[in-house]
Amino acid sequence: MEAPVVEKKVIMAASSSAVPLETAKQDDAPATDATEAVAEKQAEEPPKPPSNRCLTCRKKVGLTGFQCRCGGTFCSTHRYTDSHQCTFDYKKVAREQIAKQNPVVMAEKINKI
User: Fold this and answer.
1) pTM greater than 0.90
2) According to the UniProt record, where is the region Disordered (predicted)?
């Protein structure tokens, strides 16, 4: 498997002298690891659109699909958390929200004169 050939770019100064300002640096040894190339391609690809099928029964849902907080799309039968074994912790989020909205208020122990 051969590595693709990459040309070096030379940036020339705007003045009349022909001295290059900077050259692109390149490793002498080409990358031979195929996993690095695959990882770079995956990083550049845009994320896939959400599925139009229910994650539980694989039924097509189209525009009527319900997005759950666990990240899945479900049909009308499996939209509730108890019907699709939801992994999202609703109690934890509710506790954090209540704690944020109701800070602990403590009175001073000694009255200042």
Assistant:
1) no
2) 17-51
Residue-wise pLDDT for 20-66, tens only, equals 555 444 454 444 456 676 666 666 767 666 678 999 999 999 888 99
Q: % helix / strand / coil in the chain, to the nearest 5?
A: 25, 10, 65
pLDDT digits (tens, 9 = 90+) for 67-91: 999 989 999 999 999 999 899 999 9
Structure tokens at 107: 């009175």
Which domains, from first to last, does the chain contain? 49-98 (4.10.1110.10)
Q: HSE of 27 in the Cβ direction (CA atoms, 13 Å)?
A: 5
**Number of alpha carbons in the 13 Å side-chain half-sphere of residue 71:** 4
* Structure tokens, 24: 């692109």
